[in-house]
C-alpha cells in the first residue's frame, strides 16, 4: 500500500505546480511592431493564427497596441505549436483552396 501513497503524493505535487503557474501568469506572447518598432506582450486573445496549405501561407496577425497597425507575420511550425498551445484562435485556410 505504500506504493500507491508514493505515486499519489507525486501526482499531487505536479498537478498543483501546473495549476499555480496557470492561475498566476496567463500566457503572453512577445511581439514587435514593424511600424513603430515597439515591443510588447500580447495575450492569446489579441492574436490570430491562420494556417494555410503551406508554411508560406501560414501566419499570425495582431493589432499593434501602440500605433494600431495591423501586423501580419509568417508563423513557423514552432510558432504554430506555441500559439495553438497557448489558446490563440486558429483559422484554417487550406479547406478553401
Ligand atoms: Zn506599432
3D structure, described in words:
The strands form two sheets. A four-stranded mixed sheet has the order 5-4-3-6, with helices on one face. The chain has a two-stranded antiparallel sheet with strand order 1-2. It has a domain at 27-92. 8% of the residues are buried. With 97 residues, the protein is α+β, with helices and mostly antiparallel strands. It is built from two helices and six strands. It is globular and about 35 Å long. The structure holds zinc ion. Zinc ion is lined by residues 33, 35-36, 38, 64, 66-67, 69.
Entry keywords:
two-stranded antiparallel sheet; four-stranded mixed beta sheet; 30% strand; binds zinc ion; 97 residues
Task: Break the fold down into its secondary structure elements and pairings.
Elements lengths: L1 H23 L3 E5 L6 E5 L3 E5 L7 E5 L6 E5 L2 H9 L3 E4 L5
Parallel strand pairs: 3-6
Antiparallel strand pairs: 1-2, 3-4, 4-5
The protein binds zinc ion.
The site of zinc ion has 8 residues, from loops.
Share of residues in helices: 25-40%
Query: Which blocks of ≥5 consecutive residues have pLDDT under 50?
Result: 4-8
Percent range for β-strand residues = 25-35%
Largest sheet features: 4 strands, mixed
The total strand number stands at 6
The hetero compounds bound to this protein are: zinc ion
Distance between the termini: 59 Å
Amino acid at each position: 500500500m505504500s506504493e500507491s501513497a508514493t505515486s499519489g503524493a507525486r501526482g499531487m505535487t505536479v498537478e498543483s505546480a501546473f495549476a499555480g503557474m496557470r492561475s498566476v501568469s496567463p500566457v503572453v506572447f512577445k511581439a514587435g511592431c514593424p511600424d513603430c518598432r515597439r515591443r510588447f506582450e500580447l495575450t492569446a486573445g489579441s492574436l490570430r493564427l491562420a494556417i494555410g496549405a503551406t508554411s508560406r501561407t501560414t501566419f499570425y496577425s495582431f493589432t499593434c497596441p501602440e500605433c494600431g497597425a495591423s501586423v501580419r507575420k509568417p508563423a513557423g511550425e514552432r510558432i504554430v505549436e506555441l500559439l495553438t498551445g497557448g489558446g490563440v484562435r486558429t483559422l484554417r485556410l487550406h479547406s478553401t483552396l
